[in-house]
Amino acid sequence: MRHIISLLMENEPGALSRVIGLFSQRNYNIESLTVAATEDPTLSRLTLTTIGKEEVIEQITKNLNKLIEVVKLVDLSESAHIERELMLVKIKASGAQRAEVKRTADIFRGQIVDVTPSIYTVQLAGTTDKLDSFIQAVGAASIVEVVRSGVTGIARGDKVLSL
Amino acid sequence: MELLSGAEMVVRSLRDEGVKYIYGYPGGALLHIYDALFKEHDLTHILVRHEQAATHMADGYARATGKAGVVLVTSGPGATNAVTGIATAYMDSIPMVVISGQVPSAAVGTDAFQETDMIGVSRPIVKHSFMVKHPSEIPEVIKKAFYLAESGRPGPVVVDIPKDMTNPTDKYEYSYPKKAKLRSYVPPTRGHSGQIRKAVEMLLAAKRPLLYSGGGVVLGHASSQLTELARALNLPVTNTLMGLGAYPGTDRQFLGMPGMHGSYTANLAMHHCDVLFAVGARFDDRVVNGVAKFCPTAKIIHIDIDPATISKTIKADIPIVGPVNSVLDDMLAELKSMNVKQDANVVNSWWKQIDEWRGNGRLFPYNEGDGSIIKPQAVIETLMDVTGGDAYITSDVGQHQMFAAQYYRFDKPNRWINSGGLGTMGFGFPAAMGIKLSFPDETVACVTGEGSIQMNIQELSTCLQYDLPVKIVNLNNGALGMVRQWQDMQYNSRYSHSYMESLPDFIKLAEAYGHVGIRITDLKDLKPKMEEAFALKDRLVFLDIQVDTSEHVYPMQIRDGAMRDMWLSKTERT
User: Nearest C-alpha of chain A: how many angstroms from B530?
Assistant: First the structure.
């Protein structure tokens, strides 16, 4: 099953390499990874998605918690949460295609953020599934370039990950 | 407040931490620190002949005393030479602080002379590591390094110090912190009381209980609690390779170690038990054999300070996260307060079964032969006899290590010192040196083979310089015995590169380094010559003992089988 693990870690050089190193060292799978500083400049928030059996996920969270720089950790998939991924896509947009791309972007609530005579650049945020569907709807033949941020997420309601 | 340079802070911090010995080797990036060390008289620095030996010396010291060993190595090759020793300590959870020099910060990343990314190289084999960014943070970083190395599940910590951080002319206020503070690191202090009660209840109700304890009991100073609990519940006990001595090896309740070369009795008891009580052990692959067939009838109680060890390979029914000594204390208290009593008849019939498996002979039977050639097993039995079973015994890796673990019956913890997890050849001799330095009045012997001893033999020179009269017991069979054993059993005796054609004359070699060498080739000389060697208290004696090359270590578990599936000799299996 796919899990979204979100953690707070010390905003120090080397902390990220320990997280990534753990995954390669122990042969764990890593699907996506995002990391940035938080409102507290001493902390970074890292969100990663991974796929594995429950026993493996348990080991992943235990070993992440063991890293000295990891302060707190939550497996978002264990309870209600919101997940988002940001995507920028360059799509061929000339002739009759141009209107079609615009329509599809509207349906998916994407925004066209850059325009040239032959290209639309679409910005789209949503779940991984939604982004995948958009690419499918547009069709591989029209896609010039895709950039995805990787998944980030937050728990629903009052639950927070903080010190 | 006193003003000190970074180099002086390193030295002073170590002194204020209570460090007595530093094992190291100087080099360019460390020159400021070595200059500060020159003026410091409370710290003893041991100049090794190779950095790997420095780490093993620190490791041996740590295993015998429970305190972190301290290593000082220079940048580049000095640091990389230390890597094997750091990995050895990491695998066995040994507290160690390794201070490595680094090129000046402005040169970091430029492929400077003797530059290695030590933080990167050591990352997978350390508990944590630090790179010093400013001289003023040195005391705090060193305090944290010791705290991390020694607390929780211990392990090695690397502190990488760029040379400019130790510049003698840049002085800063120095004070050594009393406590280390890390908001993200809180090792557990107590086990969960509900789980502890459930564990005691399960043990009281068990029909065929078995106590399986590992290195965590030695590291966690829980030997006396473990012994008390085992006696209170009349539990059969098996100690892993890393846990030998945690329960007295000569006691009736002790069945020998379990696993690949474990005793017939211990492996059978493990296979048939209904409650496996695992304490500070990690279900290593050399213990459990085939995971799918492991202990088919057992419920498992698992105590460990590291939650990631629990249910890693074998699912625990009652997991307890906590320091083994406090958890065992709580279990003893719980046991005393409970009204439920154990059914003595049930446990006695389990013991009857175990005694049948055990028989009346040796725990590890072997064919003594006709006496024309010395059996390696007999050497260890004689060593046990000559040292009264009370020596510090270190070992290298291979057949001799297994023979030492099988035939030397350790009654105390911290006396058996070997590289169990990483299996590092070359470990035993420097480890013995580290112990002898701290316990000059104790007998310290390194059981080794002619393969392993040559991996750090240069330290004979260090022993002369610092007067470290350890005893080297070399089981010389002229072959890499364990490799040869596998080649015998699985490769139709094709001895691919497992023998050495030009072994040195170890007697002359020992003499060349200023020590005593004694060769033993006849069984009748074994005991008297060994006695002679151990009577030379103030000399290092290299005992080169010619033993039977064809001897194998048994039992030997059959790969991917159950605990009970073993070869008992070359022709006989369970």
Answer: 46
- What domain range is A109 assigned to? 82-152
Instruction: Return the residue in A12, A68, A71, A163 with the most chain B beta carbons within 10 A, the one to mutate for interface testing.
Output: A68
**Residue B182 to residue A25, Cβ atoms within 8 A:** no
Distant-in-sequence, close-in-space partners of A35: CB < 8 Å, separation ≥ 6? A16, A44, A45, A46, A47
Domain co-membership, A108 together with A73: no
Do A49 and A71 lie in one domain? The reply is: yes
Chain-chain contact of A10 with B129 (C-beta, under 8 angstroms): no
Q: Which of B20, B114, B201, B334 is catalytic?
A: B114
The reply to whether A158 falls in a domain is: no
Contact call for B184 and A70, based on CB within 8 A = yes
Those residues of chain A that have pLDDT short of 50 are none
Strand B21-24 and strand B275-279: the pairing is unpaired
Instruction: Please tell me whether residues A71 and A91 are part of one structural domain.
Output: no
Domain covering B193-358, topology: Rossmann fold (3.40.50)
Is B403 in the active site? no
ipTM of the complex: 0.93
Its sign, for the CA torsion B30, B36, B41, B43, is negative
User: Do A68 and B127 count as a contact with CB atoms less than 8 A apart?
Assistant: yes
- Tens-place pLDDT, residues B515-572: 999 999 999 999 999 999 999 999 999 999 999 999 999 999 999 999 999 999 999 9
Catalytic residue among B270, B482, B556, B563: B482
> What dotted CATH number matches B376-553?
3.40.50.970
Looking at A28, A50, A78, which one is the last position of a domain?
A: A78
Whether pLDDT at B340 is above 90: no
